[in-house]
Structures are given as C-alpha cells and as structure tokens.
Amino acid sequence: MESAGLNQPELARRIGISKQAVSAIISGSTKQPNPVNLFEIADATGFEARWLATGKGPQTKEEVARERLDISQLSPNSQAAIRAVLHSLEEQQHDPSNRHAKS
C-alpha cells in the first residue's frame, strides 16, 4: 500500500470493501481472501495477485514483464546493450527530477 501511496481506508474505498476487511487481509487473519479482492488490491497497488496470495513469484507487474523478456538467445553484446537500455529506463522512471518519465 505504501509504495502505491495508499493507506487502509483509501485502499478499502478503491476496491469497495470495508477498512476492517482490508485490515484482516493484511494481518493474515483472513486465511483465504476473496480472489476478486486480491485482484483488485493487485490493480490498486501494482503488485501481482499471486504474490499477494502466496508470497511466491514476482512481486510486481514490472517484474513479470522482465521475466517474460527472454534475451538468452542473443549475443552477449546484444544482451548487455538491452540490459543497459532497460536499466536506464528504470532509472528514469524512479528519478523524481525527470519530469518526462512515466510512473
């Protein structure tokens, strides 16, 4: 929630459940959260629903996208070039002074 700039009441409002339900999901007292709620939490926060439910797999949608990019068949020089470009793009996204980067 913090990385998405949300607190419990705001997250609850966005996904249409009570603050108490959000609190129960976060604390783990709800052992089997409603799958629809998990997907809505994932959409609201940018995290992956599978990771939210199980703690396994990629945490964010960005990590999923990186895993899907298979450059293993390219030459080492091409792989290095692609990694450098991706790293540069990632830095631009996280640089608050870069007004043109998309969040």
Summarize the structure.
The chain has 103 residues and is mainly α. Helices cover 59% and strands 0% of the residues.
**What structural class do the secondary elements suggest?**
mainly alpha
**Percent in helix:** 55-70%
Per CATH, the superfamily of the largest domain is: lambda repressor-like DNA-binding domains
CATH topology of the largest domain, what is it called? 434 Repressor (Amino-terminal Domain)
What is the correct CATH architecture of the largest domain?
Answer: Orthogonal Bundle
Q: Give the C-alpha Rg.
A: 17 Å
Q: Could you name the ranges where pLDDT drops below 50 across 5 or more consecutive residues? A: none
Q: Round the mean pLDDT to the nearest integer and report it.
A: 85
In CATH's first tier, which class of the largest domain applies?
Mainly Alpha
SS element count, helices: 6
Biggest sheet character: none
In angstroms, what separates the terminal alpha carbons?
A: 16 Å
Number of strands: 0
Encode the helix/strand succession as letters.
Answer: HHHHHH
Q: What is the number of domains?
A: 2
Strand content: under 5%
> Any idea what the shape is?
elongated
Could you walk me through the main structural features you see in this protein, from its secondary elements to its overall organization?
With 103 residues, the protein is mainly α. Helices cover 59% and strands 0% of the residues. It contains six helices and no strands. It has two domains: 2-59, 434 Repressor (Amino-terminal Domain) (Orthogonal Bundle), CATH 1.10.260.40; 69-94, no CATH class. The radius of gyration is 17 Å and the shape is elongated.
